[in-house]
Amino acid sequence: MNTLRGALFTLGLLISGALDAAAPEQQAVATAHPLSTDAAHRVLDQGGNAFDAAIAAAATLAVVEPQGSGLGGGGFFLLRLQDQDGVDYRFLDARETAPLAAHRDMYRDADGKVSRQSALDGPLAAGIPGLPAALVHLAEHYGQLPLSTSLAPAIRAAEEGFEVGERYRMLGGFRLKAMRTDPETARIYLRDGELPAVGTLLRQPELAATLRALAQQGRDGFYAGPIAERMVEGVRAAGGIWQEADLSGYRIIEREPIRWRSQGHEIISAPLPSAGGIALAGILQGLDHLPATPPGSAQRTHQLVELMRRVYRDRAVLLGDADQIDVPVARLISAEYAHALADGISAQRATPSSELGAPQGFVEGTHTTHFSLIDSQGNAVAATLSINLPFGAAFTVPGTGVLLNNEMDDFAADPSGRNAYGLAGSEANAIAPGKRPLSSMTPTMLENDQRLAVLGTPGGSRIITMVLLGSMEAMDGQPVEHWVSRPRFHHQYLPDHIQIEDGAFTPQVRSALERLGHRIEPVGREYGDMQAVNWDKRQSELSAASDPRGEGKALVRRALRAD
Q: What is the pTM of this model?
């Protein structure tokens, strides 16, 4: 496996050498909240690079979008580094880990049944956070500014407050009962037990103090000392199982991203413990092997759905934390494997998922956040961050302002069952001490000598297919606004139907798919919140777009300084 990674890395450097282009002399940021976008630009204007801006964006989102991310969660950062020697890509794994006292059957009751409630609500549902460590790692290894400078906008937002928006209220409605149960969460995020009205100013002084400790002390400001002690004491007092060793032992892992070529682009995406890169490699390379069909046609959609079905079954059966289990990654991302998947597809009929093997189910949280950015030097970041379900575990550690994740639900608490998002699970993703749960978060870049596309989205199990559809828009040369706004469809092996947004299919395409045997289920509402930036190397211009389904802000402007 190490030999393969080395070979891929060398190949990547050779490819990247051909991708060099003059720096864009602009900076572009797209995030899920205007205050986060403004924070990233402010740090760039102060002399920071893309990685300093990523710290500012991530930390500010942790303050103003508590329904999607936070210091009590984690995520993945895909980095593009450009200098006079060429281009390199890095992947930072800041995924949460299972506590050391966790075990495979920790959510089973005396009768052997899995308790979904304890895997969703309260401190027992929380993995060890990775985002604070990621912010420190970015500053120490890639940034140009002190961590205190990059965190300043987030600290200010926590102290001065932000105005509650419609998205906060909409997602909070799904978790209101759980939020009312925890006194600290209710005190901070509710008003008299109800969701605050749009425009309500929400201040978080305890979170500001925690961010300040991180800014001043680095890693020890969160994973050791008074903050860590409060975290462990608060979790254990409420029935959790954290220990000080869980926090002191947490580490960021730098991994080689998944890389392959398709349709004239190199695609760079997320490795395990994300299923995203492996799934995208299977779908896109499989599509390359199938007969060409017109974009938007029933036959193209049929091909995509059948490939989705097959890679999501692999996700359910084979994938997990590759640091703890043996996953045949080299085989799964190979063109040969993708071609074998494609060879099993009939052009005349949909394949029932039951024909692909014994059913496997899994669950995954729906809300997350994403941002994409490029600086004037050509450095770029795609970052997808999460606390799993909206407002995570709905448990805030007293005295810290830290709202904890419920990412333990992303493990297969019942390896034969499913998670909150209907995703199938298996022994490969069973709970184990220190293990990182499987994820669908898929920060992705596509590059050739004409463009660099940077994109990603929240959306639980649908993330991979949203990134797929956005990537295909980019490869077809569509403007960045099309990547984020196109109607979406999704199949995840189980349940065995195509989920669609309104407008995803014409009546003719829908009828043709149904004749092939596909079952189609409208989702009833729009989903996702894609953030994307594009570098047109031919014109030396950047563009950016935020998903119209969300409340984000995309902004491109000329850099204020010479680089």
A: 0.94
